User: What shape does this take?
Amino acid sequence: MDVQRIWVLTGKEIRLGLTSFMSIYVLVAPVVLSLLVALIFGDLFAQTPRLGIFDAGGNETLVQALADHPSIQTRSYASQAALEAAVARGSVEWGMSLEADFANVLREGGTVARTNTYRWGEAGTRNLMLIETAVARAVVEATGLVFDELPISVEVVQLGEASAATWSQRLLPLLLIMAIVLSGLFIPSSSLVDEKQKGTLVALTTTPASLLDVYLAKTAVGFILSGLMALIILALNNAFAGNPGLLLLVIALGGLMSSILGVILGSWSRDMETFMGIIKVLGLVLYAPGILEIFPQVPQWIGRVFPTYYIMNPLLEISRNAARFADIAADLAILLGFIAVLAFVLAREIQRQQQQLALEG
Amino acid sequence: MTMIQVSDLSLTYPGTRDPAVDGISFEVGQGEIFGFLGPSGAGKSTTQRVLCKLLQHWSGSATVMDRSLTAWGQDYFAHVGVSFELPNHYLQLTARENLKLFANLYPQDVTRSEDLMAVVDLTADADTRVGQFSKGMMQRLSFVRAFQHEPRLVFLDEPTAGLDPVNARRITDHLQTLRADGCTIFLTTHDMHIADLLCDRVAFMVQGRLALIDTPRNLRLAQGRKQVQVEYRTGEGRRQELFDLDGIGGNERFAELLRSEEIETIHTQEATLEDIFIRTTGEQLL
Assistant: This one.
């Protein structure tokens, strides 16, 4: 092994890799998907918050103020039952049932103003916060009271099935796996298959560079690109949170596992057709933990069966729950175990490939 | 000085019964161009792959540059150049970038690239992507790549395949210059003209064994007839007669022909390498 030669070969891999169709697809796909998810489900371009109101009477000024609010969409309902039904099916995210003369009672110094409110189970946190702020401001304007001293008792009833995560949060695990696995696995493997087919691999091994140097350079490229992609996806999804050192450690280990696996698969594959055939079978195994996260009703322990779970889960634990090293140590140990097994397989594969090149070269 | 010394080298591929190389022995001296000839499947490429350290699990002994082949590590290739029959370059890179990439893998300074590109007339295309090259241009680039680090020993496989006569001539002329500088060349080819022109010695391989090994001149003389053929024209058309070379100075008929007839050609009847190839291997050259 020679570090200087690995560096030269890594430069070549990056230069050639970034101009190949496969690389463009692998690097662009997760970013485009991330942006699409943000566009469709995410917080950045989320739909206008939807408020439903049933007015028992005498609150026209307050209702009008909410209807005129530029940041929310307000719908009025003829009965409390109609309001509840609308919230339950998600037509509005927040429902507010106003008692008769609610605003006047407050304005005249009434001590108790009770309001029943309803929250749609799948409503996003951002939208709920916007609605709450809009309602509070409208009440302040309608009553002339001070914001912090509103004598209101709020009872919230959740309607519809609850969901702790937004769609963008649910899709993040799959995007993360795509980012790490696609770039870590596809770029080294496709490059290796291409070099075998074009005969450049055997040409490299008749220089002072060894096959080990060549394989390590390809692993390094997969490792670097998967790390970069993971960071980009975390940043695009506002998930780069928690302990950054720990986050980088997990990304590095995930990238290492993916790139070693990629080099092994590329070495095994005679041509791109064979490689794509393997990926068709293996793809589901790799993406399964991310797919399971989309469906919270499926028992999540199933994800633990798949190796990529041990990349995905620690990343999510750190970014969502500010997990510390001790919290994810078990996952990392399993991930290291996978890496050790793959490294052993790779070492054997290098020996086999050396012989194979001699026979085919 | 001996550059390559091979003794009783044998190799059987896994899954096959007959050895691909069966107990061959030969030596190649420093500054020699050694031609390795034979039909496809005779064991030439296998021998070359063993000497290129690509194949392992062979038996016998092989010493290259005064060191057992098995004792050499990857540093072997700092002193050795290899050119393959089929060009294998990075098509997305230019010729110069390809050469630079490979040059950067050597521990020594590689400074001959530009000179060699000029030798094979590639300078004008040095910054063209290799994907746009013809097969001949790729072949010439392979030649430059094999020699740019100034190796002491070079393995060449069909170095003039796909080249036009002018470029083939450039290559053969330069190989002769390199030989004069002490570079040893192990040449595998089907081109008997190139072998005859370049090689100090040639070896014929048949079914994994060395059938013949000698200088082309000795083989031609040994395998040919010591006769001269005279072709002349008479009023009745073209005729030819054969004369023994021994005592030809006193041969009256020969002298009379030269005096009285319109001579068209006179050829000695030594064998060509092609004749020897066919006779030795029992196969026709394509």
About this structure: The interface with chain B takes residues 5, 8-9, 12, 15-16, 19, 198-200, 202-210, 354-355, 357-359, 361 of chain A (CB under 8 Å). The CA atoms of residues 202 and 358 of chain A lie 8 Å apart. DSSP finds 13 helices and five strands in chain A. The radius of gyration of chain A is 28 Å.
